[in-house]
Amino acid sequence: MEMSTEGIELIKKSEGFRSRVYLDVEGYPTIGYGHRLIHPETFPNGITETQGTAILYRDVGEAEHAVARMVKAQLTQGQFDALVDFVFNLGQVRLADSTLLHELNAGRFAEAGEQFLRWDHAGAQENAGLKARRKAELSLWNCAESESAGQQASESALVHS
Q1: Contact 67/80 with Cβ under 8 angstroms?
Q2: Strand 121-122 vs strand 125-126: parallel, antiparallel, or unpaired?
């Protein structure tokens, strides 16, 4: 499964684009659409938006692989997108150690979805940007459940007609 255009747009909107290196809320050097620099990356002359998009897709690919590796439950596209955004933003270690993943792999989708809203802090401080992002992830998550339930009902009606 790959992240949808809607998921990519969530990352772009949440991160914004910066052509020059800056320090994120946790103090890490970052560039483009939230790409955390990894030694020896420096980008002394900055990057273009096209370069930033290429880096974003590479980073999203890593997040997709992490989600695919850790999640044992069958996901809808929206659920997958929400989890990939979560991993892109917070890292795969945080998902691996989370109640969100535990609930999800136990098949408790509603309880797993509720866990997104717990991840709205940068350090000890609640962060308005993270709060909005978690709500957007939950919206993707819940929209996917509704679409999935509606699709299953439609398929069931076709089979029984």
Answers
A1: yes
A2: antiparallel
Q: Extract the tokens encoding 150.
A: 């509606």
Sheet holding 29-32, edge to edge: 18-23, 29-32, 35-36
Residue at token pair 């900055």: 46
Confirm whether 145 is a catalytic residue.
no
Q: What span, in angstroms and rounded, lies between the C-alpha atoms of 102 and 23?
A: 32
Q: Which residue in 2, 6, 15, 137 is the catalytic one?
A: 15
CA distance 126 to 71: 27
Q: Give pLDDT tens digits for 100-119.
A: 999 999 999 999 999 999 99
Instruction: Give this prediction's pTM.
Output: 0.88
